[in-house]
């Protein structure tokens, strides 16, 4: 697939992105509802221009197993809320201390740290409310809640973030790197695909194929992020770049160098695409999205 085909594919997902934004708008508290500062902060970060990769993955995984977009909307929106909370908290002075996110002042800069902490907390908790309130089948709802809790908490993103902080300044080591990346970034991306498939009623076989796909693209997403942190400009990324290296973070380029990291990312992307080959044409958008993720420039 050429770069311009990929560009076309990504632009072609505009309707899906708008449908997700409309649903998030409907399911988040109104900006003027008291306490309005909290709701304004939640909405500020939610509508700051994120790419919506995770909810798109969730909807495409649901389609790949024959499900409707409607079924996947609750986990898709829930995951974007959890993702946005993680970025708000990650930017706080006590964590990465970043003043910019998505090209705009980060939440604690636009509001204040206390409001940013509470906006993150409210986005994390509303995610589980979205699943419970808008999933019609209670058994599916309970499976989705467990998937999300595992991916977001100690066994996933929060655990990965802690391991990442603990590893700062350590000698670069491939096993530790995989441990961190699978949890910090990979777990939520994996949950996006798995919850989409579960909401769409996937039997075990296709769910396993999608799981293999999801683990691989979760890793390539973070490899691409690590490379962009060293090669892209802050303007291109909409956030401060180069901080990982300066902080002695455990990244793919630190362990393998930029070229080997790129080669690995492309090899893992091929594995991802092969894993969903048996799902045929309905999984084609997922294969294209895998290419987009590895080649992304922001
Ligand atoms: C604070 C509990 C807690 C966790 C933070 C995800 C995370 C853990 C921190 C974010 C820091 C970071 C740069 C992670 C790398 C991968 C990543 C999540 C990048 C941002 O995701 P995109 O590119 O962002 O999907 P947009 O803005 O498009 O939504």
- Number-wise, the strands total 2
- Summed up, the domain count is 1
Report the β-strand fraction as a percent range: under 5%
CATH-defined superfamily: Farnesyl Diphosphate Synthase
N to C succession of SSEs:
HHHHHEEHHHHHHHHHHH
CATH class label: Mainly Alpha
Which fold name fills CATH's third level, the topology? Farnesyl Diphosphate Synthase
Largest sheet: 2 strands, antiparallel
Radius of gyration: 18 Å
Report on the architecture of this protein.
Strand 1 (100-101) and strand 2 form a beta hairpin. Strands 1-2 form a two-stranded antiparallel ribbon. Helix content is 73%, strand content 1%. It has helices at residues 3-12, 14-27, 36-46, 53-64, 69-91, 107-110, 113-134, 138-152, 157-167, 174-199, 204-231, 234-237, 243-246, 252-256, 258-275, 284-295; strands at 100-101, 104-105. The mean pLDDT is 95. The chain has one domain (3-295): Orthogonal Bundle (Farnesyl Diphosphate Synthase), CATH 1.10.600. By secondary structure, the chain is an all-alpha fold. The longest helix is centred in the last third of the chain and has 28 residues, at 204-231. Geranylgeranyl diphosphate binds at residues 50-51, 53, 86-87, 89-90, 95, 102, 157-158, 161, 184-185, 222, 225.
């Amino acid at each position: 697939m050429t770069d311009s085909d990929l560009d076309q594919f990504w632009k072609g997902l505009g309707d899906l992105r708008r449908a997700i934004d409309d649903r998030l708008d409907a399911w988040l508290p109104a900006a003027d509802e008291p306490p309005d500062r909290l709701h304004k902060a939640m909405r500020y970060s939610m509508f700051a221009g994120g790419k919506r990769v995770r909810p798109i993955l969730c909807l495409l995984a649901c389609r790949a197993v024959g499900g409707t977009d409607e079924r996947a909307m609750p986990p898709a929106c829930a995951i974007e809320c959890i993702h946005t909370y993680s970025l708000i908290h990650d930017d706080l002075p006590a964590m990465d201390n970043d003043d910019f996110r998505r090209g705009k002042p980060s939440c604690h800069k636009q509001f204040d740290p206390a409001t940013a902490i509470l906006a993150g907390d409210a986005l994390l908790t509303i995610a589980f409310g979205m699943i419970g309130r808008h999933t019609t089948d209670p058994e599916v709802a309970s499976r989705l809640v467990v998937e999300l809790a595992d991916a977001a908490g100690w066994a996933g993103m929060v655990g990965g973030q802690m391991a990442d902080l603990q590893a700062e300044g350590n000698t670069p080591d491939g096993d530790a790197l995989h441990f961190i990346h699978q949890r910090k970034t990979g777990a939520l991306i994996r949950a996006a695909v798995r919850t989409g498939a579960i909401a769409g009623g996937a039997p075990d076989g296709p769910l396993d194929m999608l799981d293999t796909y999801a683990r691989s693209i979760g890793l390539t997403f973070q490899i691409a992020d690590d490379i962009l942190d060293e090669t892209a400009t802050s303007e291109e990324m909409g956030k401060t770049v180069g901080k990982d290296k300066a902080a002695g973070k455990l990244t793919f380029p630190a362990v393998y160098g930029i070229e080997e990291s790129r080669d690995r990312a492309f090899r893992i992307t091929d594995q991802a695409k092969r894993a969903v080959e048996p799902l045929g044409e309905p999984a084609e958008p997922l294969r294209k999205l895998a290419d987009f993720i590895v080649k992304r420039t922001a």
